[in-house]
Amino acid sequence: MPKIKTNRAAAKRFSFTKSGKVKHKRAYLRHLLSSKSRGRKRRLRHDALLNKTDAKTLAALMPYA
To answer: Domain locations in the chain?
Structure first.
């Protein structure tokens, strides 16, 4: 049976923790930054964990991760 291809778009956007949770970069930090508070921009810098429902969907896109 052939190997399953990894979805490259997903592979570039998501990574996994050692315990198997899925990390992603937060949205809303690309433009219109002057209207956002300093604290909000600081919180958006940090990675977030994907919820379990979306992580299941991602498992199909990244079978070997």
So the answer is: 8-58
Q: What secondary structure letter does DSSP report for 45?
A: T
Q: Is 48 helix (H, G, I), strand (E, B) or coil?
A: strand
pTM of the model: 0.83
Give the whole-angstrom CA distance, residue 14 versus residue 12. Answer: 6
d(CA 51, CA 58): 11
Tens-place pLDDT, residues 31-47: 999 999 999 999 999 99
Domain 8-58 architecture: Irregular (4.10)
**Helix (H, G, I), strand (E, B), or coil: what is residue 49?**
strand
Distance CA(30)–CA(23), nearest Å, equals 19
